[in-house]
């Protein structure tokens, strides 16, 4: 496993050629200094200082990011569209790029862009007053509203320049109040990492997923189950996992009944999925005078245009925020609810987008139309229990869903006892997941499942200790021919040999 992870993070490229490309694309300015600024899950990011004092960003995608041409070409087109079509100057300007490694001396795909201006929201969030945080939410809504209203029709997929997608694949996109398709941009294959390739495995050459673009919602929903089944059949190593769970096939039987009838909820919608505090920058000067101004919004990689009801979500800097160590949880929860209310009201009470506000499901559980597609496309990583529970609930409640139609799941014979059992299974699954997270944290794995070089030896020792303790408590006879190391979540042998 760890050798595979290492391969997914390794990218060979010509540093001198990259410096020359920076020089060429910035009008002949010399590169004074280039240094690695960051390395996340998908990219190596370099900060480049030029001879006139200007700084730019050079970014190289790693194999982990996904198919290199489509990922790079789509991100550049998306950023260009946001900046040039929608006038969102907070999106950094692209200076130079290539989505074809074989066509550049750099030897890898790359994007060179202006450095994001301002300071990361994460650096100041805890210092802001509640009123300032509410102002951040309001300023975010002003930005986001333009993004989610970018398209009127055309289908679903990811955005590209017209010349980067074969004409027999591309779908036209239509801006609001326009009867003509956009001349420069089209829909092409989805670059979303949520189901269309897996960020923890190398994609085999013969795996051609149902990656879009899609003309309608039902086509998209069906593609989820086709892709998930295909992936499991191709990539599962243990024979017991090679047969996709029946739940995946059952989704296809009921998918059409969970497409909203309100056409507003089906509008092709683009959002920034990673709208967390590290991707949003605010003006330091404005903050000094007590004001809030968003200066930059970054990381548009893997952006996909989906039906509004599946795209709607609160920004991650609110919805995914967690209390800091020692922080009063009651106060944190109170503040979070307040900011969520501000966000929801910014769409609902002002009339900015009632459909978006409706689809947010603030304060209530997400409905089946939103839960089922997510559960179906995460079976490989998250198991089948969430999907199975949703299907059982659908079967038991069918008379409330489509009373004039015979339940497509009736042959499964689901009962209340089945629902009770799957809830127990779900609790066990989440307990096991929590245990895995605890193991990863104790070993020292970061969010991308890697460790820093200076922590590697300690991580190996901790992993060995935890593995030995876990193995000692196993009933090896019950495991049969299964090697305990093969089901240990961290990948024992590979970690030792890395």
From TrEMBL:
Q: Which SUPFAM superfamilies match?
A: Protein kinase-like (PK-like)
Chief place where the protein resides: mitochondrion
Superkingdom: Eukaryota
Q: Name one GO cellular component term.
A: mitochondrion
Record's keyword terms, sorted? Mitochondrion, Transit peptide
Question: Subcellular location, in the record's words?
Answer: Mitochondrion
> Which InterPro entries does this one have?
Kinase-like_dom_sf, Mito_inheritance_9
What the record says about family reads: Belongs to the AIM9 family.
Q: What is the designated name of this protein? A: Altered inheritance of mitochondria protein 9, mitochondrial
């Amino acid at each position: 496993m760890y050798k595979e992870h290492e391969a997914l993070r390794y990218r060979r490229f010509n540093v001198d050629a990259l410096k020359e490309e920076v020089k060429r694309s910035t009008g002949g300015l010399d590169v004074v200094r280039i240094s690695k600024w960051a390395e996340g899950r998908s990219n190596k990011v370099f900060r480049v200082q030029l001879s006139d004092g200007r700084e730019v960003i050079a970014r190289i995608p790693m194999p982990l990011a996904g198919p290199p041409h489509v990922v790079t070409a789509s991100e550049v087109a998306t950023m260009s569209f946001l900046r040039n079509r929608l006038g969102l100057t907070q999106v950094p300007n692209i200076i130079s790029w290539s989505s074809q490694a074989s066509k550049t001396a750099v030897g890898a795909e790359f994007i060179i862009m202006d450095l994001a201006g301002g300071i990361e929201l994460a650096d100041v969030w805890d210092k802001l007053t509640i009123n300032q945080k509410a102002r951040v939410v309001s300023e975010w809504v002003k930005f986001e509203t333009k993004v989610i209203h970018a398209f009127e029709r055309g289908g679903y997929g990811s955005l590209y320049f017209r010349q980067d997608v074969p004409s027999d694949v591309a779908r036209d996109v239509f801006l609001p109040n326009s009867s003509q398709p956009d001349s420069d941009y089209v829909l092409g294959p989805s670059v979303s990492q949520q189901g269309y390739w897996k960020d923890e495995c190398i994609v085999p050459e013969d795996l051609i997923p149902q990656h879009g673009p899609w003309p309608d919602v039902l086509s998209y929903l069906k593609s989820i189950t086709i892709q998930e089944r295909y992936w499991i059949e191709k990539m599962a190593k243990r024979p017991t996992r090679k047969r996709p769970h029946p739940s995946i096939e059952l989704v296809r039987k009921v998918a059409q009944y969970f497409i909203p009838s309100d056409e507003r909820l089906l509008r092709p919608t683009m959002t920034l999925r990673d709208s967390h505090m590290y991707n949003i920058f605010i003006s330091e000067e404005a903050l000094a005078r007590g004001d809030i101004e968003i200066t930059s919004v970054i990381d548009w990689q893997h952006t996909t245009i989906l039906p509004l009801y599946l795209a709607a979500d609160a920004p991650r800097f609110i919805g995914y925020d967690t209390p800091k160590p020692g922080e009063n949880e009651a106060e944190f929860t109170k503040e979070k609810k307040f900011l969520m209310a501000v966000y929801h009201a910014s769409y609902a009470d002002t009339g900015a987008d009632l459909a978006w506000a409706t689809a947010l499901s603030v304060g209530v559980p997400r409905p089946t139309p939103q839960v089922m597609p997510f559960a179906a496309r995460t079976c490989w990583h998250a198991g089948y229990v969430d999907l199975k529970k949703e299907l059982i609930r659908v079967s038991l409640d069918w008379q409330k869903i489509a009373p004039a139609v015979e339940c497509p799941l009736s042959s499964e014979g689901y009962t209340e006892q089945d629902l009770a059992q799957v809830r127990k299974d779900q609790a066990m699954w989440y307990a096991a997941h929590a245990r895995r997270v605890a193991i990863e944290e104790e070993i020292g794995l970061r969010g991308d499942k890697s460790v820093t070089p200076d922590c590697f030896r300690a991580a190996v020792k901790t992993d060995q200790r935890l593995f030995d303790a876990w193995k000692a408590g196993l009933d090896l006879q019950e495991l049969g021919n299964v090697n305990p190391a093969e089901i240990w979540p961290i990948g024992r042998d590979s970690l030792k040999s890395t």
